[in-house]
Design goal:
Elements: E1 2-6, H1 13-24, E2 27-30, H2 31-40, H3 44-55, H4 61-72, E3 81-84, H5 90-102, E4 109-114, H6 117-125, E5 127-130, E6 136-138, E7 157-158, H7 165-179, H8 181-187, E8 192-196, H9 201-219
Parallel strand pairs: 1-3, 1-4, 2-3, 4-8
Antiparallel strand pairs: 5-6, 5-7
Helix pairs in contact: 1-9, 2-3, 4-5, 6-7
Bound molecules: adenosine-5'-diphosphate (2 copies) and zinc ion.
């Protein structure tokens, strides 16, 4: 099974991806997480991506397409993948189709989690991420059991440097211009499903899970 989770920054993609991947036994592949690791490890990719990420711009298509192409060819992806944060441009979506063709794979579902802009700002500026396992929390909406400590791995929580008000505004702009057109791209295909992401984490999860359950049955 190959599922794409789409939506503006802060919609809850990472939060839902963690749960959906566990429930459906899919591998959670997040280009954002991969790029942040590369920046932290100061790899060649990280050095190239860093400045774009810091100012809230998209990393150039060719770099992101290359890492996804390599990742999807890994043997651990054979059991099913949940893509979070990729594709983010029509060019990336077209490149993905080529990559999947070459691997004899196809997209089973595209889930778009939608949330209004004001709420996205609240969510992103209160977001905290685990240094150890990249789990996501929110200081008000989804706090850890112990302040600043990850429930899963006891890692320390931090605030992403791009989760400040100014950079968030830039990222929301970038989303409208470069990623939002992808909705129409996937709507034309039969695999698109929009979810109202303004509800509780649990309610959004239930809807996505029910939809995937249905598409799994259809796909089999
Ligand atoms: P994305 O990966 O789409 O950028 P995240 O999953 O990181 O989004 O969520 C952004 C922030 O909003 C996080 O702090 C997360 O804990 C919080 N959050 C996610 N889903 C919800 C929800 N349904 N209601 C309230 N807060 C949420
Ligand atoms: P968000 O939680 O805002 O959805 P991500 O963690 O997915 O953010 O991405 C963080 C940053 O990493 C983006 O602002 C962008 O600079 C870069 N990035 C992640 N995925 C992609 C992609 N598919 N194409 C280009 N840049 C990306
Ligand atoms: Zn953790």
């Amino acid at each position: 099974m190959l599922v794409i989770l789409m939506g503006p920054p802060g919609a809850g993609k990472g939060t839902q991806a963690e749960r959906i991947a566990r429930e459906f036994d899919l591998l959670h592949v997040s280009t954002g997480d991969m790029l942040r690791s590369a920046v932290k490890d100061k790899t060649t990719l990280g050095e190239k991506a860093k400045a774009y990420m810091e100012r809230g711009a998209l990393v150039p298509d060719e770099l992101v397409i290359a890492i996804i192409k390599e990742r999807l060819a890994d043997t651990d992806c054979a059991g099913g993948v949940l893509l979070d944060g990729f594709p983010r441009t029509v060019e990336q979506a077209e490149a993905l189709e080529q990559v999947l063709d070459d691997l004899s794979l196809k997209i089973d579902a595209v889930i778009n989690v939608d949330v209004a802009k004001d709420e996205l700002l609240n969510r992103l500026t209160g977001r905290r991420v685990c240094r150890g396992c990249a789990s996501t929390y929110h200081i008000k909406f989804n706090p850890p059991r112990v302040r600043n400590i990850c429930d899963h791995c006891s890692g320390e929580l931090y605030q992403r440097s791009d989760d400040t008000v100014d950079t968030v505004k830039e990222r929301l702009d970038v989303y409208s211009k470069q990623t939002h057109p992808l909705i129409e791209y996937y709507q034309r295909k039969n695999i698109y499903h929009a979810v109202d992401g303004a509800r509780s984490i649990e309610a959004v999860f239930e809807e996505i899970a029910a939809y995937l359950e249905k598409s799994k049955i259809k796909g089999n």
